[in-house]
Each structure stands twice: as C-alpha cells, then as structure tokens.
Backbone:
C-alpha cells in the first residue's frame, strides 16, 4: 500500500511540475507617441515594453495587465513582476512615465491631463491587439497594478476610465496634499507641517540628468491666460511662422510676453524634467514651509481622493507599515472611500514600504499570491473568489542593520480600520508638562525619518538619529509591561500646550524602550501637529486629540512605552525663528488599538493547497495501514496501570537493540518516587542517554515499558505534559532574548502563559538582566541555566535532567543542588544523569548505576556507597603508623601521603586509635571510607560488575 501511494504522489508531483512550468514570454520594446495634456493638444513619446505569453493569440486572446512603475523609476523597475504575470498568462504592458527615462514630456505628479491621460491611450493600444481579450469594442479585459506613483495611477485611472476591470495599488497616497503636509489633529494641508526631507528627496529624484529642450507646448502653458498665443507655435494663416512671430514680437502683446519667456527659460534650467507649475510649487513651499491655496489645488488634482466615488473596479489595497511618506492612514482613506460605493475592497498591510523596501520573504510571497488571486478572479474570470479578510504581518526580528526581516503573518475576517476591532488598551504613563524649545528652522534636532535610508530605523544604529535632544522634548513613560502588548492601528493621546506666540509646531512620538534603556521608534513615524490659538498659560490650554501614525508592533514583557512631545524634527519644516512652548499629555495615558487576529496557513499558491491535500490523503493511507498492523499493540499501549497512578516513574524490563546485535539496554528496572532525587550513573556507553530518550518518548524500546504516573509512555503521550526534560544540548533561537525563548517554548505547548509559573522559573535561572539579551551573547553556562529553567516551566511533577551542571561554576552548582532538593521536597521527583559522582552524592537521595546496558545497583545513596568496614586515618607519621596498625588483626592497610586506609576486619576503630596514640603517632582525623566514587569504580571496574542488594 505504501508503494502504491508513493507512486501516486510521485505522479501528482510530475503533473504539477508540467502544469506550472514557466510559459515562454516574448518581449517587445517600442517608442509610442500618444496625445497628452488638456484636450490632448500635445504629443509625447513613451518608452513601452510588451510581455506576451506564448499562450496568447488571436484564437486564444489573453487578459491584460497595465503595470506602472514608481516615482523616479522606468519600465525596467517592474521587469521581474511583469515577466511573472506574463508567465501566468497575462499580456503585460509596461512603460516609462513621461518625464522619466527615455520617455518625453515632463513630470506633472500624476495629473489626469497628463500621466493618467497617457495611461488611457495605452488602454486603447491594448484594445487594438488581437491577442488581448476584449469585453467589447475598444474595451480590453485589463487589470492595473502599480506601487507608489504607479499605485496612484491605478486608482486615478480606475476612477476616470470604466474599462479597468480590477486594480492593485500598493504603498500609495489618497490625498497628496495631506501626505506631504500632515496634521495629526485632523486639520487639512493648509495647516499641515511640511515633510521637508521627503519633498526634497522627491524633487531631487525628478530633476533628471539633463534639462529637456524648451518646446512650444512648454511656452504656451506658461503664458498668462490674457495673452493671445494661439498661433505662436504654428504661424498665422496668411504668413509664414517666422513672419508671424516677428509680427507679434512688435506688438504690445508680444512685448508683454517676452519677460515671461525669459522667466520660463530660467525656471526650466532649475526644474529639470518637472513641469513648471510643479517646480514653482516646490520652490514656494520649500521657502515658506506652508501649503498655499494653489499648492493644495494642484496636489488635489493628483490625488485619488477626488475620484474614489467613481471607482467600480474591485480593489486590492496593499500598504506598508514602515512608510513615513505614505502611512497606513492613506490606505484606510482609500478603502473607506471605495467601499462606500459597494465596490469590493480588500486591504493588506506588509512590513515594508518606502522606508523598508518590499518587506520579508513572507510579505513578498503573500503580496504576489494575493495579486495573482485578485487578477485571476476579477480579470481572467477564473479561480475562487478572493477572501475579504484583512491580512497583515508583524516584525519578529531583524538583522543588525535592519535587514533580514522575519515576520509573523496574521489575519482577521474583516478590515477593522486604524481603530482596531477590540476596545483600545489604555496604558497609564508617568510624566509632567515641561518647557521645551524649538531651534530656528528645526536644526539641530532629532531626525525621525531619512528618505531612501529608512530601513536602518529597525537597527540599533537608528537610536542615534531618533533620540530626542534634551530641552527639545518632554517624555511620558509607562511602568515595565507585565505582559506583551500588541498594537495594530493608530494610537491616540490627548495633547495640551501653551505658547507665547499663540501657535506651536509639535511632534508626538511613540517609543519602545527596552530594559537596557535603548529606545526604538516603531515604523519610524511621528505625528506632526500645528496648534493655533494657544493661551500663554498651560493651565488655560484645552486638550486636543492627536492620532499617531498607524503601526503593527509588539511591546514585549519588561519593555516600557514612552510618548514624547518634541518641538522640532529635522525631517519636517519648523518655525523660522526660535520658539518656546509648554507641552504635556492631558491624561498621562495612551490608547492603543487592538485587533483579534489569527495566523493563517498562508499557502504559497492554490496548487500548493491541492498538493498538500493529496499528500495528506496519501499520508492518511500510510498511517491507516500502519495502525491496522499495530492494532493489537496499540490496545496494550493505551492501558493504564492504576497501581502506579501516583508514582512519577516506573521502568520495567527496559531493553533497546539497534540493528541485529547492538544491544544498548538489557532489562533495566528502577522506580522514581515522589520526594526523591535519583541519580542515573554509568560510564560512557552504559546506555544512560538512550534510557533518558525512552523515558520521555523520543525513542521506542525494543522491550519493556515506562510508566509515568501509571500511564504507559509512547511518543506524544498526554502524560508527558507532566514531565520537564533537559537532554543533551538545548536548542534556542540565537536572535531572541532568553525571556522570549522561554515564552516561545511555552506557547508551543498550547497552554496559557500564566500556567508557566514564569516568575519562579526565572528566579531559579538566576540570569537577571541577561534574560532580555539575545541568546547568541550567552556563555555556555548561561545557556545551561536557561535550559534548566526551560525544563522547569510549569513546574512539572517529574523532572529529567541530563548533565545539568555542565558549564556551571561551583557557586551555581551548589545553588542548583539546593533547588533540586527543594523541588523534590514539594512532592515532585527528579531524575539526574551526571558524571560528577561527588555532586550526585551531595544532591541525590537515591542512585541507579548502569553498566554495559544493565542495572548493577539501585537504592539510597548511603546504602549503595556503603560503609564497607573501612576507615581513613589522618596521622602525623604515615610510615610508623602503618607499622603499628599492621600488628593488629586488620584485613589490610594502605598508605597514602598523609593518611592510612584500613580495612578493619572486625577490629574496633577505637583499638586502631589507641594503638597509634600509645605508639607515639598523632591522629588528626578518623572517618569512614564509604564514598560513592569508590563504590562506583568497584561496580564498573576491570574485574567486572559486583552486584549488591537492590533497594528500589
């Protein structure tokens, strides 16, 4: 049966491999001229590239994808994604937006008359191809995908062209004015605080390597509306173009136009490939730090917010949690606006963004699968309907420089928004209002975000940048957290401030403070606030609610939550002159949104789920065959020995043989009772480690049985939850702290954290502040103490430890000795395997000695060690003492450096002492010669094991 099922599985894998083999893709580059500008009066050349799968033809037309790049990119920026979609059977059209790369034109920031109009002309091209599926004449079956700049295009195009069937915008904006001029109390861009660092970076990215030629269209768009320039570029009806221009140059209108032409030439040289109105807008806001009415109007034209009520194409919104340019609030505004029309909307958050790239491997896989599923259903018309669930990821670890992000995937049934779907958790903070100052033009000050380098905000290096400068910020801080706090959404605080000038620009930040004092800024984001109408007295100030940027973050146990109110931030434009404010939190508390989320199975693709189901069926068949063959034995294994229900451990006839003739254990019997600390001894190769593995179900015995509280031990037996184990080298995740490793281990058992008895266990570990350091920084001894603590989690009734003193120093060994004695005294039991015989003698109440796989001794330590009728006598003169004792009828006398070992043979100790003293030999000490080490060596020595009476 196993062979047949294996062949079925192999055949299924072969079918899957053939069905998922990459489709051959043909790539075609072309320069395309399209009308652009108001009413299409201008022409622009676009650098395009087609990705056509071999499966697409006039007889079998394929659905299409319009794939847009981000700001500053080109068609090459999305080449990998385009090829992937083409391999899935889509005809993909990519292009370089005007103003970038080899395309002509200028940058208008996704203006409906320019960049969006260009995309509409590209839809026309798709509709004219015979290998592209159409819904009707001039209407291609098409989805639009893009990130950032391209994401805004997807939204605007869907709002302005009903031919779009589905869109997947990622890491993009809702209102460009609000994104560049945020204000966290709910005011509009006119009152917002300018993101100077990001705007400067975007401006520099758009300048390009060369200044484009001045063409008539540029001149025309720059002339005041009152000037008649209709024929400037084309000449008059009656004369030549040169004569027309010369004639107008002599006219009063042309005379008024010439200074404007000179200004255009000057502006163009400083604006690179930006359109003049965009360039001038930047120059204005860079000088003033404020958005005027013209700026707000221009940015509004480039904002999806203006067309959300027209979007009917199903929308998958993907937004990053590490994005100081377009934070999560931009995606939420898009989701709310589109869903209000009844349009299907799904929201995903990932750990990347403009500050952290594409996120983790898990994020990249989830985004790719979600995008494909969305397009397959709504564009191709195949595949299951995508879920409406909300998926997001939480960062669990990063590399030293912020790279190598690891994340945990989570989801809920519905998108909860930035407010969460649970009552917010209110955390009390301690702090007081304080006077803070703002330097002129916000410098020097803390730097919350660094465009293009934001990924380092996840690394320890970022602490030097985000740290608030003394005198510029007031801080409020929580007590150390007793349990982890998960935040999903936008926290809120109530801010109160006073200013001599009646206004203030402030920045509210949320820090995660580790036990060592190191602070990180989750997501690298801050809440910028501009307050007006402030009183001069703090007591008269009215609180305002500040909504911090949305985030996904876990504050671990022992960490603190810190909220600071800063007067300056170098990433934003501040007041031109120095300012002094009094600021604080009105309620000394913060509200943290929460989401009840679960971990999904997150299959890599639909075929993987099907393959997993097939593999599961095969596995069930194999297991079923195995269970049928083992039915009789399984029934016996399920029996419970009620007579030993209160006995921690009973070992009966335990035997283990590997292969045909390698015998490791031979009929071993012993019992561990409550209150006992039992030492398992034996030389190397005696079978101790194999025995321990059998005791907690890792290895099946060849014969015999193990009972734990009367239940027979088999792999996975429920009674093993009452056993704590440390066998061989412990395994820990080196990038996590000791505390996090213990919590992760316990969570894997599926039991509540409060049952772990964590405070008691941590006290036993004795690691102090090192518990919150990464395990990779631990010494061998520290790892061993952490492993002992892990075995004691939940304070199990039976504790099995293999070489627990390995790596411990003498004081720690002595401490462990006390702990084990006390542990057993509470009614529990301990089994210890160790090669330190003297330590076993001091720690254990009973011992079991193995040799060559057999039990050669068992019983109380004192009985196994035995008195043996032997004494040690420490004397002042060994030679004379040996001579005097030899006159007595003792069995033997052995000389050492300062003492004699005398086998009495019935002679009283007092008689030996009297003989030595009367003979003139000083006696320093007399004691029994009954050490466990001697007895152990006698049991396993070269003469073979010597059996003694067993006392289980």
Residues:
């Amino acid at each position: 049966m196993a062979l047949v099922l294996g062949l079925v599985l192999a055949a299924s894998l072969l079918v899957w491999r053939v069905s998922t083999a990459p489709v051959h893709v043909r790539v075609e580059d072309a320069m395309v001229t399209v009308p652009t500008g108001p009413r299409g009066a201008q022409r622009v050349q676009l650098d395009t590239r087609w990705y056509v799968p071999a499966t697409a033809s006039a007889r079998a037309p394929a659905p299409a994808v319009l794939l847009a790049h981000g700001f500053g990119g080109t068609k090459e920026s999305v080449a990998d994604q385009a090829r992937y979609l083409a391999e899935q059977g889509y005809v993909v059209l990519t292009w370089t937006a005007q103003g970038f790369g080899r395309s002509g034109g200028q940058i208008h920031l996704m203006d409906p008359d320019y960049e969006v109009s260009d995309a509409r002309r590209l839809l026309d091209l798709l509709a004219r191809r015979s290998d592209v599926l159409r819904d009707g004449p001039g209407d291609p079956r098409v989805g639009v995908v893009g990130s950032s700049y391209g994401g805004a295009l997807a939204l605007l195009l869907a709002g302005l062209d009903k031919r779009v069937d589905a869109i997947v915008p990622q890491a993009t904006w809702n209102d460009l004015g609000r994104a560049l001029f945020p204000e966290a109390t709910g005011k509009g861009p006119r009152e917002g605080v300018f993101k100077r660092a990001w705007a400067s970076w975007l401006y520099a990215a758009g300048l390009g390597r060369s200044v484009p030629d001045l063409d008539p269209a540029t001149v025309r768009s720059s002339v005041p509306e009152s000037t008649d320039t209709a024929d400037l570029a084309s000449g008059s009806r009656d004369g030549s173009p040169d004569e027309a221009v010369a004639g107008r140059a002599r006219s009063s209108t042309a005379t008024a136009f010439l200074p404007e032409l000179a200004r255009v030439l000057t502006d163009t040289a400083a604006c690179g490939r930006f359109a003049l109105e965009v360039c001038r807008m930047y120059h204005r806001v860079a000088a003033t730090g404020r958005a005027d009415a013209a700026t707000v109007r221009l940015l509004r034209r480039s904002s999806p917010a203006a067309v959300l009520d027209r979007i009917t194409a199903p929308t998958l919104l993907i937004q990053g949690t590490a994005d100081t340019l377009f934070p999560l609030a931009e995606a939420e505004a898009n989701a709310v606006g589109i869903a209000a029309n009844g349009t299907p909307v799904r929201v995903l958050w990932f750990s990347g963004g403009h500050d952290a790239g594409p996120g983790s491997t898990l994020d990249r896989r989830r985004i790719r699968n979600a995008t494909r599923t969305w397009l397959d259903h709504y564009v191709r018309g195949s595949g299951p309907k995508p879920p409406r669930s909300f998926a997001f990821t939480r960062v669990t670890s990063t590399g030293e420089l912020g790279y190598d992000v690891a994340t945990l995937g989570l989801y809920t049934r519905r998108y909860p928004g930035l407010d969460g779907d649970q009552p917010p958790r209110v955390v009390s903070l301690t702090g007081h209002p304080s006077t803070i100052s703002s330097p002129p033009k916000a410098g020097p000050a803390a730097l919350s975000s660094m465009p293009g380098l934001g990924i380092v905000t996840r690394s320890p290096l970022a602490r030097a940048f985000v740290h608030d400068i003394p005198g510029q910020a007031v801080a409020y801080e929580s007590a150390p957290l007793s349990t982890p706090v998960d935040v999903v959404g936008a926290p809120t605080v109530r801010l109160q401030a006073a200013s001599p000038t009646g206004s203030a620009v402030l920045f509210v930040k949320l820090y995660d403070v580790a036990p060592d004092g190191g602070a990180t800024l989750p997501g690298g984001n801050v809440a910028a606030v501009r307050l007006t109408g402030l009183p001069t007295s703090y007591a008269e100030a009215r609180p305002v609610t500040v909504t911090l940027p949305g985030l996904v973050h876990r504050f671990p146990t022992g960490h603190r939550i810190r909220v600071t109110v800063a007067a300056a931030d170098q990433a934003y434009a501040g007041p031109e002159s120095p300012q002094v404010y009094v600021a604080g939190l009105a309620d000394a508390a913060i509200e943290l949104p929460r989401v009840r989320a679960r971990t999904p199975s997150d299959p890599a693709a639909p075929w993987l789920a099907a393959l997993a189901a097939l593999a599961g069926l095969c596995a069930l068949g194999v297991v079923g065959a195995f269970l049928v063959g083992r039915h009789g034995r399984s029934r016996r294994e399920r029996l419970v020995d009620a007579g030993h229900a209160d006995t921690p451990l009973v070992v009966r006839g335990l035997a283990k043989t590997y292969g045909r003739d390698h015998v490791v254990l031979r009929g071993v019997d012993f019992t561990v009772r409550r209150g006992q600390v039992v030492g398992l001894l034996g030389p190397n190769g005696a079978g101790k480690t194999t025995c321990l593995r059998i005791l907690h179900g890792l290895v099946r015995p060849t014969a015999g049985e193990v009972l734990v509280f009367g239940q027979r031990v088999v792999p996975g037996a429920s009674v093993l939850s009452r056993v704590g184990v440390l066998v061989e080298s412990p395994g820990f995740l080196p990038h996590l702290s000791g505390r996090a490793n213990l919590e992760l281990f316990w969570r894997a058992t599926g039991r509540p954290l409060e049952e772990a008895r964590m405070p008691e266990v941590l006290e036993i570990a004795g690691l102090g502040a090192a518990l919150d350091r990464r395990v990779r920084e631990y010494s061998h001894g520290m790892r061993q103490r952490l492993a002992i603590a892990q075995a004691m989690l939940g304070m199990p009734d039976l504790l099995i430890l293999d070489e627990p003193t390995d790596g411990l120093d003498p004081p720690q060994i002595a401490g462990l000795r006390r702990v084990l004695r006390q542990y057993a005294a509470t009614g529990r039991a301990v089994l210890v395997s160790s090669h330190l015989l003297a330590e076993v003698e001091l720690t254990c109440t009973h011992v079991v000695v193995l040799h060559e796989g057999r039990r050669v001794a068992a019983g109380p330590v004192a009985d196994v060690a035995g008195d043996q009728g032997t004494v040690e006598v420490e004397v002042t003169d060994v030679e004379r003492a040996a001579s005097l004792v030899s006159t007595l009828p003792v069995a033997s006398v052995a000389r050492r450096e300062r003492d004699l070992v005398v086998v009495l043979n019935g002679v009283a100790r007092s008689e030996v002492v009297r003989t030595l003293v009367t003979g003139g030999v000083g006696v320093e000490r007399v004691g029994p010669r009954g050490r466990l080490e001697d007895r152990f060596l006698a049991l396993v020595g070269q003469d073979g094991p010597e059996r003694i009476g067993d006392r289980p």
Remarks:
- The first helix runs from residue 2 to 19.
- Confidence is low (pLDDT under 50) at residues 209-266, 601-608, 942-952.
- The longest strand covers residues 25-36.
